[in-house]
# Entry
Amino acid sequence: MPINVPNNLPAIVELKNENIFIMEEERAEKQDIRPLRIALLNLMPVKIVTETDLIRTLSNTSLQLELDLFYMDEHESKNTPREHLQVFYKTFDQIRHKKYDGLIITGAPVELLEFEEVDYWKSLCEVLEWSKTNVTSTLHICWGAQAGLFYHYGIQKYPLKKKAFGVFDHNITDPKVPLVRGFDDIFPAPHSRHTENHLNDLQNHPDLFVLAYSDKVGSNIVVSKDGRQIFISGHLEYNPLTLKNEYDRDVSRGLAIEVPENYFPDNNPKNQPVIRWRAHANLLFSNWLNYYVYQETPYDWK
# Structure
């Protein structure tokens, strides 16, 4: 899929080396086509890695996308250069007047805080409310999913006794739902989180449907009954080395961290990890773009 991204975005070089077709703004402007307009709210500290991972995963469809990156400007990012944000990102105030076919809200390393303690919580609530009228379908990831479930449906998050860290198998509850069309009955997905939503709370909510869950780490895919809100507790967008980098980082800091489960061959961190979730990641994002965005969004938002 041709993804229209800002000129000179660092992700372009890496993704082109992976033979992924990326279209820069200058070329896209010459095409007479109505691309899907996707906004990406990137809440992760190392934004360049996250934007690269998500652009890679969005690339596996024939639909053309136009991507706007934005961030919460009241939060000072310590791991992404200010120059990168100024060149490639917008603030919410700069895009709030626009309509988008899809919105992606990433996770953030703030899950042990109460929602109201997060320094950009008020602004995030504005984004979540705005998405009800300005976005066709929103995809929430990890903490972004917990925040969305809390804001829209009052679903609480709870601390885990032990971090959910590794690659876990998940069961599909209804393979006829378009979001998981083509999925195997059981599929693997990475997780890296300290909190969870209780499965019973999700199953008992009349406006939500648990589409995929793990016997070990709980829910993974939850969909609102109208399909406009999708919540993913895991990280299908992760690249092969993300869990390894997280593990190595915590080890170097002297933190108590267990080896990520079902990730390194023989559970040995010296072995090269094997990726088993790429196909389902591509399916998830292409199904979302096709069935929940492209098939549902108006041609002319006006």
